[in-house]
Structures are given as C-alpha cells and as structure tokens.
Automatic annotation (TrEMBL):
PROSITE patterns the record matches: CATALASE_1, CATALASE_2, CATALASE_3
Catalyzed reactions: 2 H2O2 = O2 + 2 H2O
Native species: Pseudomonas typographi
Coiled-coil region list: none
Family classification: Belongs to the catalase family.
Domain of life, per lineage: Bacteria
Record EC number: 1.11.1.6
This protein's name: Catalase
Domain Catalase core intervals: 8-392
Region (Disordered): 1-26, 371-395
Length: 482
C-alpha cells in the first residue's frame, strides 16, 4: 500500500486538522493564533482578480430604514433611538456562486447585504435570503466555494464536486433542503425574504447583551420561479432580477421589507437545548417570536453601477455602539475574510470611496496606502498615544460588556453535535405534497451524472432527515436506497 499523502500548509508544515477551527471551548469564539484558518481564508480571498470571489453578480439600491418599534431596552444604538427615525441604507442583492456574467435565475442562495449609514458610523448586516448556511466552521468555506465554482480540469460546473462535498458534510442537509425547495429560485429580488442568518447581539445602555437573529420579511410577498421558467429566462434575459429591481424603482414601485428580530438572553442561550450560535440551525419562532423593529424601503437606483455597486464593500466587522457580533464561528471567520477581501479587491482605503464612506465624522491614525483620498491626515500626528489635546482619543464608554469564555484552546470537533437532520426533517414535513415533489425532482435533476457512491452517501442524509425524503429522492433517481 502506498504511503498516505499528508496535507500541508503553503509553507509545507503538515496540517493536523482541516475540519475544525481553534476555539475557546466547543462553543467559544475563534482564536487569532489559528494560522491555518487565516492562511486558508487570506489565500482564498486572493484567488481572483478583481471580481468578488463570491457574490460577484449583484444589484443594489438606496433607501431608508424607519424605526417602527421602541427597542431601546435592548440596544443603545442611536439609529434605534426614536420611533419614526430614519437612517439611509444601501441594499445589495446578489447570487453567490456565479460570475459577473452569470444568469440571475440560477438555483443559488441570494445575498442580502445592508449598509446602514448611521450617525455613529456604518453598520453592515451581510446576510442571505436563507436563514441558515451549508457549513458552520469557516475553515471549510474555501473548500465549499471551490465546489460551487468551476472544475480545475474542465473549467465547467461540476455536480460531482458539489454533491461529493455535501455528502461528506451532513450539517449541510438543512440548507440543501432550502436551496432545492421552491424558494431556491426567487422571482427577482423584490419577492424574497432576507436574513442576517448568523446570531448577532444588541447591547443596552446598561451594558446588557441579548443575542438576536435578524429577519427581513418581504412586504411584496414571496414569488418563486419554476425551474423550467428559470432556465428559459437564463437564456433570454440573464439580467432578469437586475432589470426587475431597477425598473420597479424607476416606476415608483418602491420595495419594502419588515425588519424583525428574534431575541434571546445570555441566560437563555446558556440553557438552550442547541448551540444558539450554529448557523446551520434556526431558532424556534414559537420560543423566540419575531419582534418588529422597522421597515426597509428602497427608493433610489444608483447613478453609476461601477462606482456604487461594484465598489460597494460590505463587511460584518462594520458595527456601531449598541450592536455587536457573537461566538458564531462562521460569523467570526467572515469578520476577517470580508474586510480582507475588500482590501485586496478594491484597495487598502476602500472605506474612503463615496459609496463606502461613513456619513459621520472619521478620525483615525491610518495613513497612506493606495488611493488615499483627501488630505491623508494632513500634518496631524499619525500615531497614538500622543501629547496633543486636539487629537483623537479612545473612548472607554463605548466598550462592550465582557463576554465570558471557557474551555481549553483546541480544534474542537464541530461534528460532535450529530443532530444534522432534525431541522431539515422538520422543514420537509412542513411542505405541501406539491412542494415535496418539487424539492425531490429538483434534487434528482441536480444529481444527474453524480457517482453512485456519492449518491448513496447523500441519500442517507435525506433519509435520516425523514424516511420519505430519502426514499423519494431515491425513487426519482431510479436507484435503491442502500
């Protein structure tokens, strides 16, 4: 038997674990000393020039967020300070896996990224039109996206790559079920919901933290495309969603979404029966009902696509006082990866571009770099601490409350939680017979040409979610469930 080939990093050092990021305890935040994770994400961000590595094709519009309910007991963020208060926003929609020239009607999650231009700085929620995601550890993100792109040999999309990865990733079963359901191809961008997907936080003036999930409910209702119609539009009008959004706003038909949160206290999170920071799972709306916060409305198209859409940079690291992050491992990986991608794709000073520039004053000691705009700090000091009274100083009053951590630093096995299937099964059982049939047919069509080994492995995931699910896909494929 030939000797096993050992996986290494770019410097040649062997990799002991390529499945789990280092974290403080099984549920704790990730550690900056995880050089393998940082190398994978940093290299992945630099694989394409200059197109976005994911979410490459997008559409965007400007509008407002209007507060409709007082949530100041949960957040001290000034944008929530008064009912009726409005904040300017930019909302960018996108497909995830396709290139800039790809069709708007492909089966793919849709990006739903919001930039709030608040008086305390820019706050970004970088989400999707699905409440969950395929993976829950950012170490696997480059691997996953490679399977959604093109095969390195044929340069063609490969169903074998996609299903091979998913069949080895049982935690993806929930999102796969969403993707191949009737909601897998929205009828444009106006007729779909948006989600923050990750767990975020709100922080009150008293320093109390609550965990939250953001939901943006389309007030236009939900409309989806049948697979055959999606294929027809891909050939006749590949910019269908862009055209629909742009034309609707030009006609004065301004799309709206109702912004809501689910709220969980830190004590509730400690006692929760599942990891509340696992992005492959949802929170029960019976236990944590939706609380309306405001309304998003889009009312103005960008004047220049390149300047205001292609150069727009969204990153979950953009937070303001009163809102925050969580120990969600995928979110923490994105905090690094998104900002790093923008530094590479647009430039070190991408925040100075008009579409990304805060509407509030900026006082920083960052200097130089490509495309440094304005006076570049003029003659003011470029270091801190310093001896000058009129220079920016840190403000401890904005510090977040301490987040208790526990656990030894290690590469904790993300799959010790083996409940990959209950959420996917519950979703399947909620579907009507027609929706189940469409889901099964969509999956069977997408698995054409996939090896029998991968098919059988994937069928076991569907069966464990619900026996009727696995048996239905097997029957549609004309194979025996092994």
């Amino acid at each position: 038997m030939s000797e096993e080939t050992v996986l290494t990093g770019a410097s040649g050092a062997p990799v002991a674990d390529n499945q789990n990021s280092r974290s403080a305890g099984p549920r704790g935040p990730l550690l900056l000393d995880d050089f393998h994770l940082l190398e994978k994400l940093a290299h992945f961000n630099r694989e394409n020039i200059p197109e976005r590595r994911v979410h490459a094709k997008g559409s965007a519009a400007y509008g407002t967020f209007t507060v409709t309910r007082d949530i100041t007991q949960y957040s001290c963020a000034k944008l929530f300070s008064d009912v009726g208060k409005q904040t300017q926003v930019l909302l960018r929609f996108s497909t995830v896996g396709g290139e800039r020239g790809s069709a708007d009607t492909e089966r793919d999650p849709r990006g739903f990224a919001i930039k709030f231009y608040t008086e305390e700085g820019n706050w970004d929620i970088v989400g999707n039109n699905t409440p969950v995601f395929f993976i829950r550890d950012p170490l696997k993100f480059p691997d996953f996206i490679h399977t959604q792109k093109r095969h390195p040999h044929s340069n063609l999309k490969s169903a074998q790559m996609m299903w091979d990865f998913w069949s080895h990733s049982p935690e993806a079963t929930h999102q796969v079920t969403v993707l191949f359901s009737d909601r897998g191809i929205p009828d444009g961008y106006r007729f779909m919901h948006g989600f923050g997907s990750h767990t975020f936080s709100l922080i009150s003036a008293d320093g109390e933290r609550h965990w939250v999930k953001w939901h943006f409910k389309s007030l236009q209702g939900i409309r989806n495309l049948a697979p055959a119609e999606a294929v027809r539009l891909a050939g006749t009008d590949p910019d269908y969603a862009q055209r629909d959004l742009f034309a609707a706003i030009e006609r004065g038909e301004y799309p709206k979404w109702r912004a809501c949160v689910q709220i969980m206290s830190e004590a509730q999170a400690q006692a929760h029966h599942e990891n509340p920071f696992d992005v492959t799972k949802t929170w029960s709306q019976k236990e944590y009902p939706l609380v309306e916060v405001g309304v998003l409305e889009l009312s103005r198209n960008p004047l220049n696509y390149f300047a205001e859409v292609e150069q727009a940079a969204f990153a979950p690291s953009n937070v303001v006082p009163g809102v925050g992050l969580s120990p969600d491992k995928m979110l923490q990986g994105r905090v690094f990866a998104y900002a790093d991608a923008h530094r590479y794709r647009i430039g070190t000073n991408h925040q100075q571009l008009p579409v990304n520039a805060p509407r509030s004053p900026v006082h920083t000691y960052q200097r130089d770099g490509a495309m440094a705009l304005g006076s570049n700090g003029g003659s003011a000091p470029n270091y801190e601490p310093n001896s000058y009274s009129n220079t920016p100083k840190q403000a401890p009053r904005y510090a977040e409350p301490a987040l208790p951590l526990s656990g030894a630093a290690a590469r904790w096995n993300q799959r010790e939680d083996t409940d990959y299937y209950s959420h996917a099964g519950a979703l399947f059982r909620l579907m009507s017979d027609a929706q189940k049939a469409l889901l099964i047919n969509n999956i069977a069509g997408a698995m054409a040409g996939v090896s029998s080994e991968v098919v059988q492995r994937q069928l076991q995931h569907f069966y464990k979610a619900d026996p009727a699910y696995g048996e239905g896909v097997a029957a549609a494929l004309g194979v025996m469930l092994g």
